[in-house]
Amino acid sequence: MISIHQALDAVLAAVRPLPSEEVPLLQALGRAAAERIISPEQVPTFANSAMDGFAVSGAELKAGRREFRVTIDIPAGRYVSETVAPGDAARIMTGAPVPPGTDTVVQVEHTRAEGDSMTVETVPEMGANVRRAGEDVTVGDVLFERGAHLGAAEIGLLAAVGVQRVRVARRPRVAILATGSELVAAGRPLEPGQIRNSNSFTAYGQVLAAGADPLLLGIARDDLDETRRLLAAALENDVVITSGGVSVGDYDFVKQVQDELGVERRFWGVATKPGKPLAFGTRGDTLVFGVPGNPVAAMVSFEMYVRPAILARQGRPDVYRPWFHAVSAEPVRRTKDRTEARRCRLTHEGDAIRFTTTGPQGSGILSSMAGAEGLFFVPPEYPGSGIGTEMLVMLLGGTSTERPPFPGASAPG
Ligand code: AMP
Ligand code: MG
After folding, report:
1. Is 0.70 topped by the overall pTM?
2. 364 and 287 in one domain?
3. How many whole angstroms from 252 Cα to the centroid of ligand 1?
4. How confident is the model at residue 153 (pLDDT cuts 50, 70, 90)?
5. Is the separation of the CB atoms in 192 and 40 below 8 Å?
6. How confident is the model at residue 413 (pLDDT cuts 50, 70, 90)?
7. Which of 70, 291, 317, 366 reaches 20 to 30 Å from 25, CA-CA?
């Protein structure tokens, strides 16, 4: 069995980037820039007022003038080219261009107005309340590097500089296939001995959240022909996730069928709990993950290996989750020969972040994933410890370019 790091290295080494495509701006949401993006425009385009108030000459204020004659009105969207004389003021609204001859805005709350005249009651700094042209973005600025994730703020920034089309990585297509003769599709009645298929649903959500397109291929019974037929269809995609059938049971056909269909095995077995029998291989550029069937093992395997692979295929550098060390709010139980990834919730206590497990941690207990905010990692052969023990926590949200320092080496067997 290889270590978590060895498994991650093997997965990331097998990733080939996907081709790019140019799409309208809104379609780029949630995707990765396929090239560096340079700003064609500056923001703000012109010096404008940050307040509703009066634009005046800062030099006049400095020289002691408090009374100004209001000669002009400038709402947002109107451009005034005449110069405002030194003793004059322009009534100006937020976002309106600051007219020539002025450089300072006195906010309306700091003035008193009487007919055409305005008195400054609180004197601002020279240049106050004016947003400089180009103070946010200047022409030629690098807005985003290649591989950058384009979320809501990034799309907004591109809109602000007039970008209408963006070159992004193609969204990976991820085929999801559940295996197991005991599985029943949603909506069908349960017969004795049958269980409901949940792995397809959790995988669907995880794939979508990783910025990829999930394709549900249903359930393959533990039957060689059926598994062959469905896996062959799955292999036409960028990434394949099968769940179940990769262990050492009599009906665990997934590895055999992978081999028959020309999937080149990169590893089988990671020294981790849950998720030990993970089988990973490639066929051409397609990444093929055989995750274990236990619902928590399937989800944790996705988090640990499939998600980084999906992000890396889009050219993202931030393929990892954020991580930190936190202290336990409860005793930490012992482990055997494998690193354990336990699900937890996080709370603040003073300056420290504390973690608490989400109830029973069996790899079949899917409710332990529900509401989990992170995974904490307990090294192999851990003797157990009390409250306040520091452990590595990996968040189940956000991204990072830095790989978490997972504990545990490779293990025999
Ligand atoms: P396997 O890895 O095929 O040996 O399956 C391990 C356990 O996970 C068994 O208890 C299966 O019934 C269960 N399991 C397998 N696939 C699914 C699935 N799609 N949804 C829910 N449970 C599953
Ligand atoms: Mg099975």
Report:
1. yes
2. yes
3. 11
4. very high
5. no
6. low
7. 317
